[in-house]
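Listing S7. Sequence submitted for prediction.
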Amino acid sequence: QVQLEESGGRLAQAGGSLRISCEASGHKFDTYNIAWFRQTPGKDREFVAAISWGGGTTRYSDSVQGRFYISRDNAKRTVDLEMNSLKPEDTAVYYCGAGLHFYTDDVQKYLYWGQGTQVTVSS
């Protein structure tokens, strides 16, 4: 089992940058693919980015491609999401999830979730 905890969310200015982190504890963190999702009130959780268990493969949603970068450090048990050129529409609670399937945006396929961290982008 893996426990996940997000951190780093805060208020940021449009056009600025922010890095949020997902720290894991538990067993076999380096066997799980990790993804970031985000959610706003009344909407479904939306896929943002994912990184494979070894860190060699990443993928992004169209809405963040070229602006956001996901990375992981298995020795430190962390997955970071660097967010650049922030837009007000990036405002959401950001969650990291751990799963065994890499090529899926289906939240049901992710086995473990953190509690989320709030990112607010002001215009």
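Caption to Listing S7: primary sequence and predicted structure tokens for the chain studied. The mean pLDDT is 96. The two ends are 40 Å apart (CA to CA).
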